[in-house]
Design a protein that fits this description.
Elements: H1 8-37, H2 41-48, H3 52-59, H4 67-77, H5 81-84
Helix pairs in contact: 1-4, 2-3, 2-4
Length: 87
């Protein structure tokens, strides 16, 4: 019996949902890492060349960060994403 392929729009929705969940989880792991291991918001803002307000906004629970922002935050933390988050 042939396997029914999922409709393209359903596949896109599932992929988007999966990506969103990954980014949300990664975001939370990075924030927890900073809170547990430092640096302070002020130090991180300086390293990232962001304002403290931008760090506060990034760390809000309902933030919707871009992948560029996540990469910049991780770089400023001096961590590799794969070292602190393994889905």
């Amino acid at each position: 019996m042939e396997k029914q392929l999922e409709h393209p729009s359903e596949h896109l929705r599932n992929t988007a949902s999966s990506n969103h969940n990954y980014v949300t989880s990664l975001h939370q792991h990075l924030i927890e890492h900073r809170k547990q291991h430092g640096p302070s918001m002020e130090e991180l803002a300086e390293r990232a060349e962001w304002s403290v307000k931008k760090i506060e906004t990034f760390e809000r629970y309902d933030a919707n960060p871009t992948l560029n922002d996540i990469a910049r935050y991780a770089t400023a933390l001096e961590v590799r994403i794969q070292d602190i988050y393994k889905p």
